[in-house]
Design goal:
10 helices, 322 residues, Rossmann fold, 9 strands, seven-stranded mixed sheet, globular, disordered N terminus
Length: 322
């Protein structure tokens, strides 16, 4: 199955609000986003994947171009699922057209920020991550990137940002690290400002099929690394326990990949690319001995998501610093 996010995965377009310089845009055609999802006749498993080399990190997904394309596709799926890059309550409280300060923690390629800039070009954006993937692409002047590990403290003063965003770190943080991360998010948020978090709830259903085997393997790997595969359902509690905060909104979303909808195809594609990218780690857990086994397994996995079982459960929370 080939990638439907051909490089560059974000199409350059004129930034109408900033001297018409060319920056990354999130303009992607629907057909381009989903055209490859159902093509499972030939599945290529890259033999060389690039991973983080930070010893203190438990993150076990790749950091290469293929993974950035997967994260970009996942971004568009999540935007469609939740009706935007920020929940409705956040836009009700914050006037994002008034040049606010926004931080994306663990920003990766910066796709969330770039998409936000398209929607709210007058805001000022900061992004940070353990490695600098953003530098590989031109970025708009509204956006500043810094290398930083939230576990070691964010490089920003107290009470700096109107909105702090963090998502998809379930496979990066251990159980015991979440409270300190949330306290750090709270520290850099202005009084009255908002924190938005979004994480998966990886859980196995009662079905006995190949998709559930994948989820079970994911859970096994997470637990071996001290991670919480169901961190999504813990977010509200963790935020409340941090103190000095008010929960504004919680929102759950579940996607069934067998429906064949636009967003279902994106999620299925993301699952497939994620399993391919982590095959080095997951193959022993799944009992796959060689590439032939892996090819067969991935074809059956893709077919299962199309016809029998496949899903993603996500949880999002918006909280206000008092």
């Amino acid at each position: 199955m080939g990638s439907c996010f051909a490089k560059p995965w974000l199409i350059e377009c004129a930034n109408k609000n900033r001297n018409r310089k060319k920056y990354f845009s999130t303009a992607m055609s629907e057909s381009r986003q989903t055209s490859c999802v159902s093509r499972s006749d030939h599945i290529t498993i890259p033999t060389q994947r690039e991973f983080h080399q930070i010893e203190t990190s438990t993150y076990w997904l790749p950091k290469d171009d293929e993974e950035q394309m997967r994260l970009t596709g996942q971004h568009f799926a999540l935007k469609e699922i939740f009706g935007g890059n920020v929940l409705q309550s956040a836009t009700d409280i914050l006037d994002l057209k008034q040049g606010l300060s926004i931080l994306d923690v663990g920003c990766g390629s910066g796709v969330w920020v770039m998409d936000m800039i398209n929607d709210y070009p007058d805001c000022n954006y900061e992004g940070c991550d353990m490695v600098n993937i953003v530098a590989q692409k031109p970025t708009p002047k509204q956006f500043t990137f810094r290398i930083a590990n939230v576990l070691e403290g964010l490089p920003y003063p107290d009470n700096t940002f109107d909105l702090v965003h963090l998502r998809l770190l379930a496979l990066a943080l251990r159980y015991d690290q979440w409270p300190s991360v949330i306290k750090e998010l709270l520290r850099v948020t202005k009084p009255g400002g908002l924190i938005q978090m979004m994480e998966p709830d990886y859980r196995v259903t009662e079905h006995d099929d190949i998709f559930c085997k994948v989820v079970s393997a994911l859970i096994t790997i997470c637990e071996a690394k001290g991670q919480n595969p169901r961190i999504g359902i813990e977010l509200e509690r963790l935020l409340r326990e941090a103190g000095n905060i008010k929960i504004i909104e919680t929102k759950s979303a579940s996607i069934d990949t067998t429906t064949g909808s636009s967003v279902a195809k994106k999620i299925a594609w993301s699952w497939m690319e994620g399993v391919k990218g982590t095959m080095k780690v997951s193959a022993p857990v799944l009992g796959l001995k060689d590439e032939k086994d892996q090819q067969r397994f991935l074809k059956e996995f893709n077919h299962c998501m199309e016809t029998k079982c496949g899903y993603l459960h996500m949880e999002a929370v918006v909280a206000q610093k008092l």
